[in-house]
Amino acid sequence: QVQLVESGGGSVQDGGSLRLSCAASRFDDYTVGWFRRAPATDREFVAAVDRNGRTTRYSDSVQGRFTISRNGFAKMVNLQMNNLKIDDTAVYYCAAGRPYLGNYGYIGNYDYWGQGTQVTVSS
Q1: What is the distance between the alpha carbons of residues 41 and 36, in angstroms, rounded to a whole number?
Q2: Which residues of 90-104 are buried (b: 16+ CB within 10 A; e: fewer)?
Q3: E runs forming strands in 1-123
Q4: What gap in Å lies between CA 84 and CA 67, rounded to an integer?
Q5: What pLDDT digit, counting tens, does each position of 51-75 carry?
Q6: Sign of the dihedral through C-alpha 38, 39, 40, 43
């Protein structure tokens, strides 16, 4: 079992930046993804990185603004969020899945989830 804890959320103005972190009991054998859920919406894919940090994927809505990073066997994965927009407001969740994924955005590929951290972007 993998235990995940997100941190780094907060409140920023439109155009600001935040860096989220996901700490885990172990990451060495897992793909790690970030998902988010806004009020009254479904959980949606944000970004993912494979087990060795070579492959990253982003949703179209955050491409060019967010960067996910990790060391290959580190127990910390970060999500740098720049140029935040009001629509980025959501609870952000870190998730761990099997080491080889054909679809990084498919929520069913992830087995372990953190409790989430709130990100609020205001005008």
Answers
A1: 9
A2: bbbbbbbbeeebeeb
A3: 4-7, 10-13, 18-24, 31-37, 44-49, 56-58, 66-70, 76-81, 90-97, 110-113, 117-122
A4: 12
A5: 888 899 999 999 999 999 986 556 8
A6: positive
> CA–CA distance from 39 to each of 27, 76, 96, 102, 120 (Å)?
29, 27, 23, 29, 11
Nearest CA-CA partner of 2 in 20, 28, 36, 34: 28
Distance, CA of 10 to CA of 40 (rounded, Å): 20
Find all residues with CB under 8 Å of 8, minimum gap 6, and list them. Answer: 18, 19, 20, 21, 117
> Tokens 């793909």 identify what position?
31
Q: If DSSP codes are grouped into helix, strand and coil, which group holds residue 87? A: helix
Tell me which of 8-22, 51-65, 69-83, 91-105 is least confident: 69-83
